[in-house]
Amino acid sequence: MTLKPIFFFAVALVVVSCSSAHSEQLLVEGLRHLRIEGPREWTEFPNAPDDHSINVQFESSVNEREVTLVVQQQDVKQRWNVAINGKQLGRLRVNENDMLVYFPVPANLLRASENALQIEQATQRNAVTDDVRIGNIRLLDRKLEDVLSEATCELTVVEASSGSPLPSRITVLNSDGALQSVGASSGENLAIRPGTIYSSNGSASFGLPAGSYTIYAGRGFEYSVDQIHLTVALGQTVQRTLQLVREVDTTGLVACDTHVHTLTHSGHGDATVEERMITLAAEGIEMPVATDHNVQIDHRPFALQANVEQYFTPVIGNEVTTRLGHVNIFPVTSAAEVPDHTLPSWQAILDAIYATPNVRVAILNHARDEHTQVTPFGPLLHNAVAGENIEGWHFGFNAMEVVNSSSTQTDILQLFHDWMAVLNRGYHVTPVGSSDSHDVGRHFVGQARTYIRCDDQAPGNIEVSNAIDQFLQGEVLVSYGLLTKLVVEDSFHSGQMANANGNTVRLKVHVLGPHWTQASRLRIYRNGQEIASRDISNTPADLATGVKAIEEFSFPKPKHDVHFVAIATGPGISDLYWKTAKPYQPKSPDWQAQVIGCSGAVWLDADQDGVATSAHEYAREIFTNANGDLKAMLTVLADFDAATAIQAAHMVQNAGVSLLEDSNQASIKNAASHTRLGFAQYLDAWRETQLAKFDH
């Protein structure tokens, strides 16, 4: 094939000599911002795109053998077709990360004169906005297999102190920092995507084009990341070893991902069940729950087949995918009948779930996401500060996702506030971090996770029933790049009920994370109200590796029972070995990536009656004793907190008394400051529900 440079639409098409034997044709220089009609997706992109597609004419000669097209892509969330001369070569990867993708161009597809390259969004125009950058497109004069095997890289990843091989994730970047496709395919021990190699045994051999690369190795949140730089020449084989250190002390904590999918059994995404076993071991998940849609899959045979059974204990679950929301359930017996996902109400759905043999956990998934035109915690159905469904739907869940790394929120704290409001409503609900991973490399397994306080000495033989006991008790920590441990009065952990004998209550918080994450802010919540906030961005030099901050707090002991929660946040990860994803259903084009670690709730038994009494229960007693009289309630609420005032306001409004009436507003203005705050927060949320109904 003879490559002929031409100029078209101000794009220089040049021949670049790569070696004495190889050449390439540059079809598009630089990256172009593309978008079909519609508003921009993110403010990092200009208002107006460069174009809605790529259409390039170029000259060539007939290719008598296969040649290769190379495309750099960034921020691709929808389907984009790639075609030459009207023949589709394939699609860009649905993956927001910066990567190089390769397409074989069949023999005799190129013409002896003018040829046409087209890259366009496959989704119907005006349907879905997708701001992307596509470019640096080259045509190489050799087949794909040869391009990706010019050199060979043989890597071993080991635990630094022992030298023992470790399951791991390997990330390969080219000299421009993009994920580099490699010359290897998924197999017995490897799961491979562009620039991402998962190894179940710590070894990987793969091809690369001649050039310079940066290679990273890691093993999930608890481990360090090692990196090497190398340059490989045509025909060269290089051997390297990368070493990992366990930096985050999670002794006595089991790493659980309650939301794990496969292409094999869910029918979408790209991770086969065989690949999933490799990725679970490599990301350090010790108790994965199989939650394919409306099926119940046992991963144990697949783990045995992959020789990774020593690294994790699989649990059978199911994402019961209904038109009213998605619910992860577990554990399930392998022979159990699948719950009916077509039932018409939460009550019926949850009744069917709990009637399924062995099921003890029902997690409300991604409650702020819209599916089948239903957003469980959207304002049309849910009062966010009262923690209650305004249509009276039965709330029988005993856990809810507060962070889902495949479905992050524009406001990362939103679901955490929702969860604390649900606690105030009187529901005992465990907070959950999960990945919802359907993929190998895009939204990867275990990025968000839940740590359960139980015996972790044998990851391949975890006592699941005990772990679930602890999970349901709330003895968990939620991790998405950070881990936040809260201890009250030196003794009481997440999920436990604390006592404080003096006039103050003391809290101690440890914020943990590997060297490649940062913590910047620590917040303390009491009954969902923020009562302290500290900058923790400067880690003291004397802290151990893996410890970001140790902070102590002292507060006046409240008169009534409350729950405490500690949440640490930090800047998101831009490095491609653990990049934090953009929001799945963004509420704004403005967004700031963050990592987060959240303790479970620690209840303070202030009245020492041995029972954790919620704000809702206190408010119900106040409402009943006052016979719904607002002025009488406001007087009593002075001895309580804003969370109790919110619950009381909800009861008054639901009783048919308008809080917006002038006389009631006057009474509220004379109430205690925390009571006024609670009523104001309630009315803001109530107005949001009314606007949602009006818009609906």
UniProtKB/TrEMBL annotation:
Keyword line: Signal
Annotated signal sequence range: 1-23
InterPro entries: Pol/histidinol_Pase-like (IPR016195)
PROSITE patterns linked: PROKAR_LIPOPROTEIN (PS51257)
Superkingdom of the organism of origin: Bacteria
NCBIfam families: CehA_McbA_metalo
This protein's name: PHP domain protein
Phylogenetic placement of the source organism: Bacteria, Pseudomonadati, Planctomycetota, Planctomycetia, Pirellulales
